[in-house]
Amino acid sequence: MRVPSAPARRTVLACGIAAALLAGASAASADPRPARHHAGSLVLIGGALKESNTQVYGEIIKRAGGPKARIGVITAASVPESQDPHAGDPARCSNSACNGAYYADLFKRHGAADAQWIPLDIDHVANADSDSVVAQVESMSGFFFGGGDQYRYVTTLLRGEEHTDSKVLAAIRAKLARGAVVSGSSAGAQIASGPDMVSGGESYEGLRDGSAPGYFDDPARLGYLPRGGFGFLRSGLIDTHTGAYGREGRALRLASDTGHDRVYALEENTALVVDRPGTRYEHMTVLGPNGVAVLDLRGAGAHESAGAWSLRRARYSYLTDEDQYDAHTWTPRVHPDKQRLTPTATNPVPANNDVFHSVANPDGTPYSLRTTARALAATRAQNSATATTFETGPRFTVTLTKARGFAAFTADGAGAGTLVSLRIDITAK
To answer: Can you name the CATH fold of 31-290?
Structure first.
């Protein structure tokens, strides 16, 4: 079985999306489903989950019952077999069925007692209300949603303009409430979102033009679904592949435009583990080689003048392996084995002319904003640093500042790793 390829940077959404989205746009951020409190947990991965990541796969399996774990694999975000030109080739296929078999085998290799594909995709939408598929779901102790196109999850598992649950989604929601683990990677993490789930877009165009409800033929335009996804995690917006694709800019713009004051910006091959989602005891742990950026807009203010958008006083925290976060109190809890970093470098922060890793820059590098932030944390030569977008007309400048409350931590005694409450301002000219 071929390893499913990494999700395309610009996702092509299902046909007919625009009408459905705009029908719900008048409701703005309203969500008819009441918030539900969960005894279970979420394991949300920012995409590109490697086969060898025993830490994250092991965490999902442990939460599903360890050696007794039974994992239901949902890959409805993939194209169905009917749309895969390589459906008959096990080495090249990338459709819902073969991706489901791939993940089921992988979970079993990592120690689950059983893992089964749940037969759902856009060619088999009726299965989402099938009693036999519901019975299959009921026999599982955990679930994994694969990557692809998150809107296919909307069209497969939600019903009508009100986005009511299909029978299968209602069963999964009930299992979560009774203690099951629900996990997902890339689109499978994004679909856990509440209202205003991002549907596409790039950082520069998002900062320049703003966001709008719907899906757009221009994949660079920042769009969102007002009614959101499944609503498993509502304490902040979710974005994925964040540093790898330079999505911090679009995440800040979308949050500001839609009135959200927090974003969980997930990095690749790394999980945000959420205990007791939807309660005042919601608590999070980061697992993996990269991290999770928490973007805090509580004190931020946006301004638009002569068509140029700016944002002041947002905060950027970057949490790494085994750091924790209390969502109710907005408190990062750095792992005790990490030491507070005392900056010793005297060199200035290197110039950065592509802070959001533009697709237009063939020489761009991923994790660009994080690189500048860590370099600033490590030097005592300056208390602020600037970085700019690759694009001009306007060119956006990002200013990072070691303001009051900022702290950096190191796990190896050398470089900065975890960052807490770095101020971030965005201006245009």
So the answer is: Rossmann fold (3.40.50)
